[in-house]
Each structure stands twice: as structure tokens, then as C-alpha cells.
Design goal:
Strands 1-2-3 form a 3-stranded antiparallel sheet. About 10% of the residues have low confidence. It has 2 domains: about 70 residues; about 80 residues, LysM domain (Membrane-bound Lytic Murein Transglycosylase D, Chain A, Roll). It is mostly helical and about 190 residues long. The N and C termini lie far apart (about 130 Å).
């Protein structure tokens, strides 16, 4: 009887191990099936993306093969016309800038609004004076309150009808600090050749 119960016990234990093993195996199979399904879905999505990219490539290829007039490209004549329009606009902008400078000078001379940054030079414009070394002609200007080198250069440029830059003024005045100009100090304004 002991042998039978021992055999029954072994059989029961083996059966329970087999059931447990079957459950673990089933769980593993279900997990693998889930992964396969995910991979299949991802493969379908990738296939769709590839098809979309192939369509876009085909569309771009078709656009490249169309004549120039159909794909909105600019011709050489169109570019020349555009360049002329840009030149005209630049000229109009320069004319407007000159007009603004003249109006500011008028306002400064009228006494209603101070235009210290656009005051005319203290030296006579008709009689340029040579620089200390005698190498260059130009004018002396006394720095006023709120003056900037750019404003001074613009005022002289407008008044004398020359192209004068702040860099030229700095070059003619060694030691001049454009960011810290001293009111009352005389600076040399070169007359460009």
C-alpha cells in the first residue's frame, strides 16, 4: 500500500509539474505570438511609409521633368527685371534719406527743434583747411552735446555732397573714442579725395 501511495504521490507530483510546465509554455507561446503580431504591424507601417516615400519621389521626379515655365522657375529676363527694380528702389531710398537729412537741417536752423547731431561744421566749407601735417584737406568741428560720429559724417556728407564715413573721421583723429566723445573737443573732418 505504501508503494501504491508513493506511486500515486509521484504521479500526482509529476502531473502537477506537467500542468505547471504547460502553463508556462502556454504563457511563453502567447508572449511570442504577441511579439510576432507587433512585428507584423510594424512591418505593415513601414511598408506604408515606403509607399508614401516612393510616391513623393515620383512626384518630385515629375516636377523636375516639367518645362521651366510650368515649374515656376525664374528666367534670366525675370532676374534682370528684378535687379532693375531693386536698383530703382535703392535709388529712391537714397533720395528719401537725402531729403530727410535736408529736412533735419532745416529744422535745426529754424530753432524750433534742436538738431545738434547734424550741425554744420565750424570751419567754412568753401575754404578747406589742411590738417596738422599738411597732407590732407578737411575741416575742424567742435563736438556738441549728443553728437555721434555717424551723425557728423552724415551731416558733412549731405552738406558737401561727398561720401564720408565715421571710420574716416576716426582714422583722421588718432585717439578719438567714438563711444566717449568729449563735448567741446575739436576733431578733424577729412575731405575725401
Amino acid at each position: 500500500m505504501r508503494k501504491i501511495s508513493l506511486w500515486l504521490f509521484i504521479f500526482g507530483f509529476t502531473a502537477s509539474l506537467a500542468v505547471a510546465q504547460d502553463a508556462a509554455t502556454q504563457q511563453l507561446i502567447d508572449e511570442i505570438n504577441g511579439r510576432i503580431q507587433n512585428l507584423t504591424e510594424m512591418q505593415a507601417a513601414q511598408g506604408k511609409k515606403i509607399a508614401d516615400l516612393e510616391k513623393q519621389t515620383s512626384d518630385l521626379s515629375d516636377k523636375l521633368n516639367q518645362p521651366a515655365a510650368a515649374n515656376n522657375s525664374a528666367s534670366a529676363d525675370d532676374l534682370k527685371k528684378l535687379a532693375e527694380q531693386v536698383k530703382d528702389l535703392a535709388k529712391k531710398q537714397q533720395d528719401d534719406n537725402d531729403l530727410i537729412v535736408k529736412e533735419l537741417e532745416k529744422l535745426g536752423k529754424g530753432g524750433g527743434v534742436s538738431a545738434t547731431s547734424h550741425k554744420p561744421p565750424t570751419a567754412s566749407i568753401d575754404n578747406p583747411t589742411p590738417a596738422a601735417g599738411g597732407a590732407q584737406n578737411g575741416y575742424y568741428y567742435t563736438i556738441q552735446d549728443k553728437d555721434t560720429l555717424i551723425a557728423i559724417a552724415r551731416a558733412y556728407s549731405a552738406q558737401l555732397k561727398i561720401k564720408l564715413t565715421a571710420d574716416q573721421i576716426v582714422a583722421a583723429n588718432p585717439g578719438l573714442n567714438p563711444k566717449n566723445m568729449i563735448v567741446g573737443k575739436k576733431i578733424f573732418i577729412p575731405q575725401p579725395q
